[in-house]
Specification:
There is one protein chain. The chain is of the alpha/beta class. The chain contains 8 helices and 12 strands. It has one domain: Purple Acid Phosphatase, chain A, domain 2 (4-Layer Sandwich), CATH 3.60.21. The model has no long low-confidence stretch (mean pLDDT about 95).
């Protein structure tokens, strides 16, 4: 089975369309979405509807729930708040209802899925460091946990002796005696200095994980953001992956 794992599309339709084409090209069997279909970008309805059609799992993200009044947004920055208010006004009733019903976590095969962190998923904690990863490994029992939220792709590996390493490799062999927290990065707003859309692929047949980066029409996404009157900063950051 080849799983394609996506996160943080954030209303960026050109990026999502490009990633879905990549999924078809590399023959992904099942698509899993870790949340934040909306927020920041100019096409929340198109993105939410397309993910609904394509994904076998669609989890709740903080921007998804923030747009429908289902989570606290006090820590959002001013740009995010402005975009979220616009998104809330723009969402169709059907998509808004769908976002309200999304689960916080999903378990499939030996995989645990969550937007932010397996420990207190509704609190939207980030996993940046070894200490945070250590706490979160105890919050799920599966071998692999996939996350998004930070927009920064990386892999935390827990070894049998209790040590943890942080890897940023584009491919990784998963060993039976190790456990993993894998951040697949962001489709619609990468923040690791690489503006290409990010896609994680887990191949359970050969026990490997791959991080794919996909070029998309950034200028189209930027033009849509500006056309809708959203903050210019949200358009400009796409070109630099920050």
């Amino acid at each position: 089975m080849r799983y394609g794992i996506l996160s943080d599309v954030h209303g960026n339709l050109p990026a999502l369309q490009s990633v879905l084409k990549t999924c078809a090209k590399i023959k992904v069997d099942k698509l899993l979405f870790l949340g934040d279909a909306v927020g920041y970008g100019a096409n929340p309805n198109q993105c939410a509807s397309l993910i609904r059609e394509e994904a076998a799992a669609f989890l709740a993200g903080n921007h998804d729930l923030g747009a429908v009044g289902m989570t606290n947004i006090r820590n959002f920055n001013p740009y995010a708040l402005e975009a979220l208010a616009w998104t809330a006004r723009t969402l169709t009733p059907d998509n808004a209802h769908y976002l309200k019903e999304r689960p916080m976590t999903v378990e499939i095969d030996d995989i645990f899925l969550v937007h932010a962190s397996p420990c207190q998923p509704a609190e939207w904690h980030y996993i940046f460091h070894h200490q945070e990863a250590s706490l979160n490994f105890s919050a799920f029992s599966q071998q692999v946990c996939f996350i998004g939220h930070s927009h920064l792709p990386c892999v935390f590996i827990l070894y049998p002796d209790g040590s943890i390493s942080l890897e940023r490799a584009a491919s990784l062999v998963l060993h039976d005696n190790a456990r993993y927290i894998i951040n697949v990065g962001s489709v619609g707003q990468p923040r690791d200095g690489d503006p290409r859309a990010s896609l994680g692929v887990l191949d359970t047949d050969n026990g490997k994980y791959y991080l794919h980066r996909t070029i998309y029409e950034i200028k189209d996404a930027q033009a849509s953001i500006l056309c809708m009157g959203l903050p210019r900063f949200l358009a400009e950051r796409l070109a630099i992956g920050r």
